[in-house]
């Protein structure tokens, strides 16, 4: 099962990378969601899979009497899911806001922060353009 | 290289000085620190003379073998005495020339900072400690050379010195790390005691060249010589300090220190001999070409450094003794002469030889000091310089491989030295009285006491060489040779070949002196024919470097998001792939684990969702497919005992779909994204990244898992945190701060999103 999940994670990563390399920032966002899913699964699987045994302490015991699922990666994944959601929500609003201001979803056209430098005649002039 | 503009810079120092009158303030207290240290080091002399080595160790990073260990042996004590002694003289002297300077105390700080760095460098017995102090000398000399920071030339020279010596320093660090791994220790004394361990090691050649790069840049050997004459932009006392006994000798110190571990090979012998000889002859010819006294001295310093390198190339005891003696001689006379040139400049307002003459009547004390220092420099008996020169000739003749080459280089360099000594110390003081910008007057006591003291020491040690031969020279030679050696210095060696060479040197030198005017104009003509000086090449190199940086920035950071991401992912794929291949970490588990139809269904669901997200051209379908992936992942969490995670995942997935759907209403339709052109490359990269991630994960899964932290949480969950759900206990108790941080992140994201939507009003379209 771990092997199959590893292959699945590879597929998820490949899909997200391909989406993130697209010009449309909406596709980039889809890639972001897939990537955080893949990352969560990696952490989860790396902590090994224990089927149908949640990490609980039964009544009458002070510790789980037999092998239960690894609690540590679960805690980490829980945190990661929430953080990933925060990141996604912010990126989504950014995309929306960017579209409102710039009228495009094409990341190649969004060049307010880094406008294309004038065709500089020499490296030195290029440096001066960049204020170096 | 030769640039008459250099002489402006000391003038800059004084133009800032409020009063040029010799107002002697409390600056002399700055000399107390080096003086007290010099006295301290003198007390070590008897122990060192009797063959002891003193070692002090303080732990720094013991786990990495990096310790603050310091060693006092003949070599480091010789340097420590020169550094502190000349440091005291220079501090005393600058208390007059820089008195009233706006930044005088800053200067004192720089000077002492430099002195302590230099002391640390020569005393360090750990490679890393030595390197740290090595870099500190680069930094502090940068501050000293650029002290007149209002002058663009001073700033450029300081930066040039910093870049050249700092670049060499990086090479040195690499060399040290290789050396440390080859020897198994970073302790210098252990490396030196390990005999042939480094020489026979497979890494000897890279170690040799890396260490040499550090030494040659610091000690300004050809072709790294150009920064040294430029560094004359510093105030004169700084030049006297940096270029007599300290900064530029650090490279020589390094070569001497590494001598037992690295020398003895043909590579060492030939590289050091050839580069040293080239530097010595080249520099002494250029010294004749200069009209500025300070620049002439700068080039003679280069000559001295070349000579020292040349002699350290040899393994013969007499050659090492020649190097050590010449090192001491040179420090004395060169510091004295720099200070005297400073006095001439201070008293007359010029350093141009053509404007100076007949000053002896106005500046009698300085004239005496100059004569004594110059005689030592020219190597006349009975000065220490004579002993040094005789030893050099003996050493040159003892070089087994090419005695003729080394000896002729030494004779030529020394003859030119005689001529330069005449130009610097005789011509300004004797002959016709020439008009100078200022009426010459004798310098105050605190200025001439140093040069006189150094010159007198040169005479005393010349007359009584026993004072230093047993206590300093012999232990230093022992340290460099790596085995006990006996050295006796004597003024009179009998009628032998070195004496004949001395006579030849004097004759040649006097001829050069008499004909130096013609020689100089000849050299100027030659220089004009040369395509470019090393200094100009340096500028071109810097320009090319900046151009390369601009080009690289354009390519790597062109401002296109896809390209940044492409580079990031390509780095991940290539870096991960290469690491897996090189380290052989990639594994394939031996057992093919079983799975049920339920597992297959879930995996198929997720895979289908992912593929659909990629290829969908309908926004709605893409969102649905994303939702399918998220739910599938939640199912995996459910199946493998993570109900809390599954619940969170479901909640978040639902929110994601809702949010995207809401925003989507205000966004345009997705356009087609056909897989052709650059997108094929993107797809290939995506598959590569996915494959690398899969292989890494499978390899990780094939290694044993350390469950000790989980076991700790399982054991302590109920007794200490009173919770039966271990995941929850971890989140709200054991790692509560993490959770708090997580809440903060979400809150900040929410705030940011709110501001984006409402806060700034409608932004203008570009």
Verbal overview:
By secondary structure, chain A is mainly α. Helices cover 61% and strands 0% of the residues of chain A. Chain A is built from 4 helices and no strands. Chain A has helices spanning 2-20, 25-46, 71-102, 123-129. The radius of gyration of chain A is 23 Å and the shape is elongated. Chain A starts with a helix and ends with a helix. Chain B has 766 residues and is an all-alpha fold. Among the domains of chain B are: 280-514, no CATH class; 594-670, no CATH class; 713-761, no CATH class. Chain B contains 31 helices and 2 strands. Chain B has helices at 8-16, 32-42, 45-49, 74-97, 104-123, 127-145, 152-183, 188-193, 204-218, 227-230, 236-242, 249-262, 266-289, 293-313, 317-348, 364-378, 384-398, 403-426, 445-463, 466-481, 497-514, 516-529, 534-556, 561-583, 597-615, 619-639, 643-664, 678-701, 708-721, 726-734, 736-759; strands at residues 54-61, 66-72. The two termini of chain B are 52 Å apart. Residues 1-23 of chain B have low confidence and may be disordered. The interface between A and B is large, with 105 and 108 residues.
Largest sheet of chain A: none
The termini of chain B sit apart by: 52 Å
Please state the average pLDDT score of chain A: 84
Low-confidence stretches of chain B: 1-23
Please write out the topology.
The complex is a heterodimer of chains A (132) and B (766).
Chain A: H1 2-20, H2 25-46, H3 71-102, H4 123-129
Helix pairs in contact in A: 1-2, 2-3
Chain B: H1 8-16, H2 32-42, H3 45-49, E1 54-61, E2 66-72, H4 74-97, H5 104-123, H6 127-145, H7 152-183, H8 188-193, H9 204-218, H10 227-230, H11 236-242, H12 249-262, H13 266-289, H14 293-313, H15 317-348, H16 364-378, H17 384-398, H18 403-426, H19 445-463, H20 466-481, H21 497-514, H22 516-529, H23 534-556, H24 561-583, H25 597-615, H26 619-639, H27 643-664, H28 678-701, H29 708-721, H30 726-734, H31 736-759
Antiparallel strand pairs in B: 1-2
Helix pairs in contact in B: 2-4, 4-5, 4-11, 4-15, 4-19, 4-20, 5-6, 6-7, 7-9, 9-12, 11-15, 12-14, 13-14, 13-18, 13-22, 14-15, 14-18, 15-16, 15-17, 15-19, 15-20, 16-18, 16-19, 17-18, 17-19, 17-21, 18-21, 24-28, 25-26, 26-27, 29-30, 30-31
């Amino acid at each position: 099962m771990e092997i199959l999940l590893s292959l699945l994670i590879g597929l998820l990563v490949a899909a997200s990378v391909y989406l993130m390399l697209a010009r449309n920032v909406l596709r980039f966002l889809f890639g972001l969601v897939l990537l955080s899913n893949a990352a969560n699964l990696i952490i989860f699987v790396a902590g090994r899979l224990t089927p149908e045994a949640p990490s609980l302490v039964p009544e009458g015991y002070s510790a789980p009497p037999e092998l239960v699922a690894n609690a540590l990666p679960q805690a980490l994944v829980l945190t990661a899911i929430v953080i990933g959601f925060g990141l996604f929500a912010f990126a989504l609003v950014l995309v929306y806001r960017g579209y409102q201001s710039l009228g495009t979803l094409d990341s190649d056209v969004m060049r307010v922060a880094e406008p294309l430098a004038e065709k500089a005649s020499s490296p030195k002039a290029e440096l001066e353009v960049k204020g170096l | 290289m030769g640039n008459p503009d250099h002489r402006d810079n000391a003038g800059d120092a004084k133009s800032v000085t409020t009063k040029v009158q010799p107002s002697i303030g409390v600056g002399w207290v700055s000399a107390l620190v080096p003086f007290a240290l010099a006295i301290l080091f003198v007390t070590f002399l008897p122990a060192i003379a009797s063959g002891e080595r003193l070692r002090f160790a303080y732990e720094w990073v013991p786990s990495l073998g990096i310790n603050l260990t310091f060693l006092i042996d003949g070599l480091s004590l010789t340097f420590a005495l020169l550094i502190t002694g000349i440091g005291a003289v220079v501090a005393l002297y600058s208390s007059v020339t820089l008195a009233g300077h706006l930044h005088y105390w800053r200067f004192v700080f720089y000077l002492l900072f430099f002195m302590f760095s230099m002391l640390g460098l020569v005393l360090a017995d750990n490679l890393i400690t030595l390197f740290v102090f090595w870099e500190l000398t680069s930094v502090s000399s940068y501050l000293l050379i650029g002290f007149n920071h209002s002058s663009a030339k001073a700033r450029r020279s300081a930066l040039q010195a910093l870049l050249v010596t700092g670049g060499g320093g990086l090479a040195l660090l690499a060399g040290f790390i290789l050396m440390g791994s080859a020897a198994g220790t970073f302790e210098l004394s252990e490396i030196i005691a390990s005999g042939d361990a480094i020489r026979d090691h497979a890494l000897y050649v890279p170690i040799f060249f890396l260490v040499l790069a550090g030494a040659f840049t610091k000690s300004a050997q050809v072709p790294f010589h150009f920064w040294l004459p430029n560094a004359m932009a510093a105030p004169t006392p700084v030049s006297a300090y940096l270029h007599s006994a300290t900064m530029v000798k650090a490279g020589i110190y390094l070569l001497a220190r590494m001598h037992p571990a690295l020398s003895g090979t043909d590579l060492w012998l030939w590289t050091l001999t050839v580069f040293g000889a080239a530097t010595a002859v080249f520099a002494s010819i250029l010294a004749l070409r200069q009209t500025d006294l300070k620049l002439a001295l700068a080039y003679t310093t280069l000559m001295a450094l070349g000579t020292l390198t040349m002699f350290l190339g040899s393994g013969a005891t007499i050659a090492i003794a020649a190097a050590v003696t010449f090192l001491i001689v040179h420090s004395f006379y060169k510091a004295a002469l720099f200070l005297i040139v400073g006095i001439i400049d201070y008293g007359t307002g010029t350093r141009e030889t053509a404007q100076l003459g007949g000053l002896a009547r106005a500046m009698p004390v300085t004239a005496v000091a100059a004569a004594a220092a110059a005689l030592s420099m020219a190597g006349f008996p009975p000065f220490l310089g004579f002993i040094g020169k005789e030893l050099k000739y003996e050493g040159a003749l003892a070089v087994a491989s090419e005695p003729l080459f080394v000896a002729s280089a030494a004779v030529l360099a020394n003859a030119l030295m005689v001529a330069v000594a005449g130009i610097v110390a005789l011509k300004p003081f004797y002959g016709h009285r020439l008009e100078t910008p200022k009426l010459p007057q004798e310098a105050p006591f605190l200025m001439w006491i140093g040069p006189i003291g150094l010159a007198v020491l040169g005479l005393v040690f010349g007359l009584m060489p026993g004072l230093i031969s047993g206590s300093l020279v012999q232990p230093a030679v022992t340290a460099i040779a790596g085995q006990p050696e006996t050295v006796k210095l004597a003024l009179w060696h009998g009628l032998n070949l070195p004496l004949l060479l001395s006579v030849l040197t004097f004759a040649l030198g006097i001829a050069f002196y008499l004909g130096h005017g013609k020689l100089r104009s000849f050299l100027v003509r030659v220089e004009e024919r040369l395509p470019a000086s090393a200094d100009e090449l340096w500028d071109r190199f810097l320009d090319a470097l900046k151009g390369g940086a601009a080009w690289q920035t354009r390519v790597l950071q062109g401002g296109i998001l896809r390209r940044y991401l492409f580079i990031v992912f390509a780095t991940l794929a290539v870096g991960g792939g290469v690491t897996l291949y090189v380290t052989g970490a990639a594994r394939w588990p031996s057992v093919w684990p079983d799975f049920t139809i339920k597992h297959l269904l879930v995996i198929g669901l997720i895979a289908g969702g992912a593929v659909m997200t990629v290829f969908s051209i309908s926004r709605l379908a893409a969102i649905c497919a994303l939702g399918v992936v998220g739910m599938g992942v939640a199912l995996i969490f459910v199946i493998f005992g993570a109900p809390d995670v599954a619940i969170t995942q479901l909640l978040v997935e639902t929110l994601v779909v809702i949010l995207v759907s809401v925003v989507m209403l205000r966004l345009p339709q997705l356009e087609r994204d056909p897989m052709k052109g650059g997108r094929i490359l993107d797809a290939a990269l995506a598959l590569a990244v996915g494959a690398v991630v899969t292989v890494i994960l499978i390899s990780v899964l094939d290694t044993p898992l350390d469950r000790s932290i989980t076991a700790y949480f399982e054991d302590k969950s109920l007794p200490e945190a009173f919770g039966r759900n271990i995941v929850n206990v971890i989140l709200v108790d054991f790692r509560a701060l993490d959770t708090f941080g997580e809440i903060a992140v979400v809150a900040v994201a929410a705030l940011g999103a709110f501001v984006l939507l409402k806060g700034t009003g409608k932004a203008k379209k570009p």
